[in-house]
Structure formats: structure tokens, C-alpha cells
Design brief:
Blueprint lengths: L1 E12 L8 H11 L8 E3 L13 E4 L5 E5 L3 E7 L14 H16 L5 E11 L4 H9 L11 E12 L2 E12 L10 E10 L10 H23 L3
Antiparallel strand pairs: 1-5, 1-6, 2-3, 3-4, 4-5, 6-9, 7-8, 8-9
Helix pairs in contact: 2-4
């Protein structure tokens, strides 16, 4: 069995993010990031009534590791692990520090108030057995009839308070059972989505608050992966 992390996504949410000079902002963000966004920079002209979740600015690195998406109400900082080219370590060294620098810049120079945050991670567990069969065996009662599914997906939500944060913790587990591509069947995918409750507002312009949130998200994520893989 091999447990691999594929992607880390860090989010900050604001009631509104207004950027008048996108070119200047992109240059400054790249500067404070340590010049990691050396790929394409896209500034997308959208009408005012376009859905708020559509990114207005996209910054990328040439090696496809880093991606920053800025929409009308959200900043998403994404790190993509490149298979076989690096050791998949979680948390990724230096990633949180860059994220905190972005939050500080948006708050101090663009007057953006971040009230919610989230961390989403994607994992793959490579097995020496059938992934869908393992999910049926470990997660589904014997009296529930499931006949040769092509894919199994399981998800659940836990709500709890952690270090004064009201947090939602979504866990998604899936596995395929493809007849035409059996080589894809010996793995399980995990998606762990930890976010602050939409009904609660926090001041994520404070570096200390983001640090605590990211640390707790990391601990919860590692615990979930450990608990669901240690007996496989």
C-alpha cells in the first residue's frame, strides 16, 4: 500500500474582492511569493453580473505546481504534486507561509476582509487489491445489495468546534471498478474538505488566526488519512 497526496487547495473567502489595477496586483503577488508565478497570467474581463465564483485573475507557475485563482469573493491557492518528480510530503514546506503573505497583502493594500477559510486535499491510496471491493467490505453493510458497481463513492460530514472555530469536515472516498481499464481499479481516492462554517465570521487578516486554522486542518487531515488506511 502506498499513500500519496496529489493536491492541496487553500481558500480565503470575502464578501467582495475589488481589484482596480490587476496588472499591478499580479506583479506584487508574484513578488511577495518569491517569483513562483512565472507562467501565464490571465486577467479575464467579465461582466459585473457574472457568477462570483468565476476567477477574474489566474496566476500559474511554468512547472504546473502553483496556481492562484482570484474571483469576486474568493482567493484559491493551489499546489499540485507532480507524480514521480518529488517526494509527496504533507504539509508542503513553505506553502502556508506564502498563503499567509497573500492574505496580508490583500488586507493591507486592497482592504479585503477575509471571513472564512478552507483547506481541501486530494489523496490516492494505491493497493494490491480491488479498491471498490475493499470499500464494499469495510464501509457497506452485508445486507445492502450492490451488484458489480462501476464506481463506489462514500461521503460524510462532521461538524465540530476546534480551537474556537466552528468547522465543517467533509470526507469523500471513492474507488472505480472499470472492466476495460482494470489497472485503475487497485486504488482508493480521498478528498478531505475542512472549512469554517458559513454562518460564523472570523478575521482571517490576522496571521496568528490563519496559522492556527491551517495547523488544525493539517492535524485533522493526517488523522483522517491515518485512521482510514492503517488497517487496509
Amino acid at each position: 500500500m502506498e499513500v500519496k497526496i496529489n493536491k492541496i487547495q487553500l481558500f480565503l473567502y470575502s464578501p467582495v474582492i475589488l481589484i482596480e489595477n490587476k496588472a499591478k496586483t499580479a506583479t506584487k503577488i508574484n513578488e511577495i511569493s518569491g517569483e513562483i508565478f512565472n507562467g501565464d497570467i490571465l486577467m479575464i474581463p467579465l461582466p459585473e453580473d457574472a457568477p462570483s465564483e468565476i476567477p477574474r485573475m489566474l496566476l500559474k507557475s511554468k512547472d504546473e505546481h502553483f496556481n492562484l485563482q482570484i474571483s469576486k469573493d474568493k482567493v484559491a491557492f493551489i499546489y499540485q504534486y507532480i507524480s514521480d518528480k518529488e517526494e509527496a510530503i504533507f504539509p508542503k514546506k513553505g506553502l502556508y507561509e506564502k498563503f499567509i503573505k497573500f492574505a496580508k497583502y490583500f488586507n493591507e493594500h486592497l482592504n479585503v476582509q477575509f471571513r472564512r477559510s478552507a483547506m481541501v486535499t486530494n489523496w490516492t491510496v494505491d493497493l494490491d487489491k480491488d479498491g471498490a471491493g475493499l470499500l464494499r467490505e469495510n464501509y457497506i453493510k452485508d445486507n445492502i445489495k450492490i451488484n458489480s458497481p462501476n464506481r463506489i463513492e462514500i461521503r460524510w460530514l462532521n461538524k465540530k468546534k476546534v480551537k474556537n472555530f466552528a468547522m465543517n469536515r467533509w470526507v469523500f472516498i471513492s474507488a472505480g471498478n472499470e472492466v476495460e481499464h482494470p489497472e485503475k481499479n487497485s486504488s482508493i481516492s480521498f478528498r478531505i474538505d475542512i472549512n469554517t462554517d458559513a454562518n460564523k465570521k472570523y478575521d482571517f487578516s490576522k496571521e496568528s488566526l490563519i496559522n492556527v486554522f491551517l495547523e488544525e486542518c493539517s492535524n485533522i487531515t493526517i488523522e483522517i488519512i491515518k485512521n482510514h488506511t492503517e488497517e487496509i
